[in-house]
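May I ask for a protein sequence together with how it folds?
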Amino acid sequence: MSGVPLWPTLNAFLNALCAFLLVQGFREVRRGDIPAHRTCMLSALGVSAVFLVSYLAYHFSGAGITKYPGEGAARAAYLALLGSHTVLAVVVVPLAVVTVTLALREKWDVHRRLARVTLPIWLTVSVTGVAVYVWLYLVAGARPPA
């Protein structure tokens, strides 16, 4: 892990933790353990909020953009992954907030319907966030700009 910047590593960890909490929350609601489901999902929202603050702090601190060092098909595949991750990340923010708000207001029917859309998108964003990190820093060996 030598040479991999701390902030992207922290952000990948937060994405992985969020994914774990989302899966566990889904398992808990399937078991009928609503208090455990609530804890997992509110924790996932909190972890996502910490991620967002960390991500923005890193990029607003002048970190710049880390470019993918590869070429050809690998670069195209990486950019496709990054692009889909970015688009879905923008979409999931309001979806997650509205879905959680509906639950807190006990609007269960609408919450359930929206959660069926929100969960797969949110989980995809969390998992692809980790995948982007692994591919960029650990596989391709990218280094952030000096």
In short: Residues 49 and 93 are 9 Å apart (CA to CA).
